[in-house]
Amino acid sequence: MNGGSTSAPAPQLAGQTVVLIGGSAGIGLETARRARLEGADVILTGRNPERLKAAAADVGALRTAAFDANDSDAFREFFDSMPAPIDHILITAGGPTYGPMLEMDVADVRDALSGHVVLGLQIARVAQPKMRPGGSLLLMGGTGGRRIDHRVGIVSAATATLPPFTAALALEIAPVRVQSHRCGLRRHPRSLRRYSAINSNNRRQELISTLPIGRVVTADDVAALAIHLMVNTALTGATYDIDGGQQFV
C-alpha cells in the first residue's frame, strides 16, 4: 500500500523540441506554455523582436528568431541553422483577408487563396529533413470555409483549401504527421480586430448566447488541442474544428 498517494503523470513531451512559427502571442504563445509544462524545449519565432523577447522570457524558450514568416529566405535560413531533430512545428503566422472580393486586386486574391497553403508547404519542404519520424506539423485555419457570406469575401474559399491540403501533405511527408485546426472566434484582441468588417463585438455576444459551451473559444482551448495532436501519434491528415459547437447553431 502506498497510503493513497499518487504520483504526477509523466510529462508527455519530455525531451522533445517544439517550434512555434508565430509564437510571440496568442495561440502560439499559449501552446508554448503548455509544451513547456509537458517537458518540451520550445523555440519561438515572430516578427516583433521586443514582443518575441518578452514571450521567450515568459516561457523559458530555448531560442528565438525574429523574421516575417512570409520571407522564404529568412525561414529557410532559420531551419538550416537549427540542429536536428525537431519534433513538432505549429504554424500560427498569417491570417484571413476580409472584404468584398471585387475590391481586391489580383495579387491580393492570390495571396488570400494560397497564403496558408504556400506557407505550410514551404516550411514542410525545409523542415522535413530535420523532423523526427512520428513528429507533427500543425497548420492553422478558421471556420469561414463552412459558410458563404458576402461580408467575409474570399475567406470562405481560402479556408476551404486547408483540409484537402492537410491530407495530401500528410501522405507526402509521412512518417511526419500533418494536421490542421479550424478555429472559431477567439477572445483575443487580434482575433477580434480581424472581425471588424462584420461587427466583431456583436458577433462575439451572439456566439456567447448561442454556442453550446456558453462562451467563445480561447487561445488556451486551441493550445490544448495542439498539444494533444502532438502527443497522439495515431493522428494525421485530418482537420479538427474547435469552435464550441458553432457549426451546429
Task: Describe this structure as you would to a colleague.
The chain has 249 residues and is an alpha/beta fold. The protein has a single domain, classed as NAD(P)-binding Rossmann-like Domain (Rossmann fold, 3-Layer(aba) Sandwich), CATH 3.40.50. Helix content is 41%, strand content 18%. It is built from 9 helices and 7 strands; from the N terminus they run βαβαβαβαβααβαααβ. Strands 3-2-1-4-5-6-7 form a 7-stranded parallel beta sheet, with helices on both faces. α4 (106-127) links the parallel β4 (86-91) and β5. α3 (72-81) packs parallel to α4. It is globular, with a radius of gyration of 18 Å.
Which key features would you list for this structure?
249 residues; alpha/beta; Rossmann fold; 7-stranded parallel β-sheet; 9 helices; 18% strand
Compact description:
Helix content is 41%, strand content 18%.
In percent, how much strand structure appears in the residues?
Answer: 15-25%
The name of the CATH topology is Rossmann fold
The total of helices stands at: 9
CATH class division: Alpha Beta
Mean pLDDT: 86
Task: Say which CATH homologous superfamily is assigned.
Answer: NAD(P)-binding Rossmann-like Domain
